[in-house]
From TrEMBL:
Belongs to the 'phage' integrase family. The lineage of its organism: Bacteria, Pseudomonadati, Pseudomonadota, Betaproteobacteria, Burkholderiales. Residues 190-406 form the Tyr recombinase domain. GO terms for biological process: DNA integration; DNA recombination. It comes from the Bacteria. This is Tyrosine-type recombinase/integrase. GO terms for molecular function: DNA binding. The keyword DNA-binding applies. Pfam families: Phage_integrase. Keywords: DNA integration, DNA recombination, DNA-binding.
Amino acid sequence: MAEYVAMRVRFQNGERLSVLQVPYGLPVHEVTLYLDKYRRKGRAANTIHFVCLTLALLYRELDKTKVALLGRLAAGHFLTAPELNRLASAVQYRMDDLDADEADKGKSNVINLLRVRLRRKSGETEREAVDVATQASRLRYMADFLNFLSDYVGSTLSQSERRSLKAEKEDALTAFRANIPKVPKRAKLNARVGLSEEEMERVLAVVHPASPNNPWERGFVRLRNWLIVVLLLATGMRRGELLGLQIGDLNPSQPKLRIIRRADAAEDLRRIQANTKTNDREIELRPAIMRRLWSFINTERRAIKAARKVPQIIVSDEGDALSESSIDKLFAQLRTACPGLPVRLTSHVMRHTWNDRFSEQAEALGLTDTVEEKARNAQQGWSDNSAMAATYTRRHTARKGREVALKLQERLDEKLKQDK
């Protein structure tokens, strides 16, 4: 079976591109053509890579049943119902080895495709399901690609063959798209929430550089990781925004920093670029936090010679700009150091926690709902009419709901007491 994998490529001008490749072979031409339309539309590199991963899955599944997609279409025929049903079934499950990045995650900017091959031979057969939203996205991208490729190949056929292929394609894709599941919006009991005040204090106590429970040994790493947690809690920024921060984004005379979108920045040498998803914005910090950040830059970070050539603030102890996988590893180690938390601690939980604290402060200040919403959107880089706040304030909203519901029960409670 051909081992199709999605690979990220970084060009010298900073542009990132994903290609579908068989190890030690050339990229799949028709996939490169298809992905180029997303690049021309300015879609995010991570979005393009997800599409590439989806097409890696498609080609893997077709290869298992010896289906040569281009040859089939060139003969004037589309995929059959059983073949499409097989694809619809395959999109339900994880396939980690589709991604060449996973083979050498966090190790190097050079992909070792041999690791992909070895991983496929590891003997792991357990299939883990993906969420419904991922299934739906995979099916949509597969259908769009098959439609694109059918028209692309069909343009080389005779008029009668082209009409026949088009009719066959449209009927087949209508049935295939019927498999796209609806993404449920009601199941929110297990939705991600922020930390409570007590849980947040516990995490800060453990991550403090002087804490005996701090899970890291080296002084630089202890201080840097403490700053990472503090900055995430203080600003509510995403991990990509934090890792994209450059020294030039700090105001030298005021306690302020700028969060700026820098897609395909040439000065960012990471193959997987950490980037900002929301609007550019300026955030003000408390002077004590800003002083500690400048102290880290001018002392601990400056002591690493290689880091002086890197514009990003958050670097490894070897001087390279830190990767998103390193942030994931940091919080995995922090989860071990803080057992028993009711939520699975990740960098994004810090964002939820900031939003909970923001809601509490807005309530204490007596802000109206409209003012609070506009203030939150400005701080988080969302548009004025964004509805994202509902996603990040579940804990606070649930608490207010419980308070109101219990208030409604007071009269009934008093009546039950009188009936005793």
